[in-house]
Amino acid sequence: MALTRSLEARYYTDPAIYAAECAGLLARTWQFAGHASQISAPGDYFTFEIAGESLFCIRGHDAVVRCYYNVCQHRAHQLVAGQGSTRVIVCPYHAWTYELTGGLRAGPNIKSVEGFDRSGVCLTEVRVEEFLGFLFVNLDPEAAPMDSWYPGARAELEEWVPNWQVLEPVKWVEIAENCNWKVSVENYSECYHCSLNHPTFATGVVRPETYDIQPQGYCLRHMTECQNLDQMTYDINSGFAHMEEYSSWFLWPMFSFQVYPGNVLNTYHWRAVDADHVVVWRGWYSPDGTPDPAIDALARQDRETTVEEDIRLVESVQRGLKSRGYVPGPLVVDPDCGVNSEHSIMTLQRWMREAVDG
Ligand code: FES
Ligand SMILES: [Fe+2]
Questions:
Q1: Each residue of 258-313: pLDDT tens digit?
Q2: Looking at the structure, do residues 132 and 158 belong to the same domain, yes or no?
């Protein structure tokens, strides 16, 4: 079998490729928007940005969450900023007013315009899906639903996180990384670097010889058995199935659900800033978002160890990718897969190439 070479450096450094990703990949894939608990009451909204587009999610009086481009259909002023709550959406420029279902309700003096048809003016809606309480949007109106992108993931997560309906964010730890988003996502998606760079990996609860990552549609599923669970800093006696395992579901291209032993849900989500910068958030959750010292300790330990160790790796890689001396090396694709194989990178880089080159 021919060697599989890593992606050429330009995919990680060329602003033109980043621009192509914004126009294509980021606008055609499911992207994390926020958590449904951020907009629990009718009229609650929050804004966010995907691929340079300002968007907002808002809960209607019918309790349905909708997402719109954050732009007035009159003369393009942005409609809302930050987060808040409102009965109707009022544009700050000339006070055109929209229903939470997107239709134009009123505007000063519009009745004076003969033939003005309010029903023809509507906010531009964006596809939104709720996935275990997490809101994802897709700018592509034709996009297939998340269940076809990530087959089986929803049902598996419901089984691994049986209390997902009561979970709310406790904190999202923000981590700025000076690297292309794909460098960070690749680093997340292999564990060939783990034994050397994460001291707790070899000595902790993971049984490295059982670690593997396998594609499941456009999901990369990480699985491992655990050991030494009495060393955990928190109580793992959740009583739920799978409480002695670790698993994660990376949803291409920029989100991952992780479940730690004891059925502890935590997440990663990435937002690309430009070709050389990405922001990563580590999300931590508890029932009703109640502060929990054990979750706090876990978040702090994660930030100080794994996250810190990975920042150094990805930033060094980004510097290396800019070296004239770099020739993309062969990936270590072990036919038996396993923890010391880069088969998951081969899959990921195929998706990355397809996203840019079609
Ligand atoms: S641009 Fe919104 S009311 Fe004029
Ligand atoms: Fe790592």
A1: 999 999 999 999 999 999 999 999 999 999 999 999 999 999 999 999 999 999 99
A2: no
Q: Which domain holds residue 50?
A: 31-142
Q: How far is CA 175 from CA 172, 184, 280, 304, 353, in A?
A: 9, 11, 5, 11, 26
Please indicate, yes or no, whether the overall pTM of this predicted structure exceeds 0.90. yes
> What are the start-end ranges of the E strands in 164-301?
167-177, 212-216, 219-225, 245-251, 255-260, 264-274, 277-287
116 lines ligand 1 (CB under 6 A): no
- Pocket mutation for ligand 1, best pick of 94, 98, 105, 110 (most atoms within 8 Å of C-beta): 94
Q: For ligand 1, atom 4, which residue shows the shortest CA distance? A: 94
Question: Per the domain annotation, does 5 fall within a domain?
Answer: no
Q: Between 288 and 51, whose confidence is greater?
A: 288
Residue at a domain's end among 110, 125, 142: 142
- At 186, the amino acid letter reads E
